[in-house]
Design goal:
With 301 residues, the protein is of the alpha+beta class. It contains six helices and ten strands, in the order αααβββαβββββββαα. Helices cover 37% and strands 20% of the residues.
Length: 301
């Protein structure tokens, strides 16, 4: 647990320092968190945008309620203070007030729940997907399978990051800008394509999470969960396992590389195994000399 916590803290610390020291270098993506960022990001998928829109609606509703409530409190404290001779009312119940402060919040919740429910249903609608990727969590790596394409590989922490974290040396932003957030094999996906994910686990509960994609899904042994994405911008998007899955939980990153469709098809063709050479048909056995000797002579005319 101590090692896991050190890994998470170290990764976040170095990531924040890299962004602040290098001033948004070229490798930074539009979906990466920024120093002093207070709001959630918009992401690079339709799902992420729906989550952002729902969040902003709830945020502004909360802001409006806060302004009204605290404004009323400030006005009451100032206008009806004791120094002006105000006398507190002596009552314990007010039916009209209780109806108002019950009905109005209910109407607000209904108005917020209606679009939020529609967005939540859309986030789980995997129909009409153009391809399916199976994600399996292991301690402590991910296995990706492009179903129907005969392509599969495992993705684990990049060797240099693993060496540094075990050696105890302190990484620098210049030498390791993606310390603990890089892998040996990236999950490569096409843009402008609805991709269905089926997610499970082989040992313990994991969680596949890339913030820029706008969703997180648990990987549970014996259960297959579904999700989908449609990446709108080419780029490299990073995430981590978001479930405490063991002592090396902090060393289980996720890297998604989104490519234009033509480039993705070329990459996929290179990953496919070479077709097997055709097996030659067995030759017909030649007649033995004994069989030829025993054969009757040809008839003479």
């Amino acid at each position: 647990m101590k090692q896991c916590k050190r890994g998470n803290i170290g990764g976040r610390w170095v990531g924040a320092m890299a962004a602040s020291w290098l001033g948004f270098p070229a490798w930074a993506q539009s979906a990466d968190p920024k120093p002093w960022q207070l709001n959630m990001g918009r992401g690079v998928t339709h799902t992420a945008r729906m989550a952002y829109e729902a969040h902003m609606v709830a945020l502004w509703v909360c802001v409006a309620i806060g302004v009204i409530v605290f404004g009323a409190i400030a006005y009451a404290v100032f206008a009806f203070r004791r120094s002006k001779g105000a006398v507190a009312a002596q009552f314990s119940h007010n039916t009209k007030a209780e109806i108002v402060w019950t009905v109005i919040p209910v109407l607000i919740l209904i108005a917020m729940a209606w679009p939020a429910t529609a967005k939540l249903i859309a986030m789980y609608d995997t129909r009409d997907s153009e391809m399916t990727v199976k994600v399996t969590g292991y301690q402590w790596m991910w296995k990706y399978e492009y179903l129907g394409q005969d392509v599969a590989f495992t993705s684990r922490l990049e060797r240099e990051s693993d060496r540094i974290r075990q050696s105890g040396e302190r990484p620098t932003a210049a030498s390791q800008p993606h310390y603990l957030l890089d892998v040996d094999h990236r999950l490569v996906l096409p843009v402008d394509t609805k991709i269905r994910f089926v997610i499970t686990s082989d040992d313990v509960i994991h969680a596949w999470w890339v913030p820029a994609l706008g969703w997180k899904q648990d990987a549970i042994p014996g259960i297959i969960n579904e999700a989908w994405t449609n990446i709108e911008q080419p780029g490299v998007y990073r995430g981590q396992c978001a479930e405490l899955c063991g002592k090396d939980h902090g060393f289980m990153p996720i890297v998604v590389e989104a490519l234009p469709k033509a480039e993705f098809q070329r990459w996929l063709a290179q990953r496919k195994p070479a077709p097997a050479a055709p097996v030659p048909a067995p030759a017909e056995p030649a007649e033995s000399s004994e069989a030829l000797a025993d054969a009757p002579p040809p008839a003479t005319p």
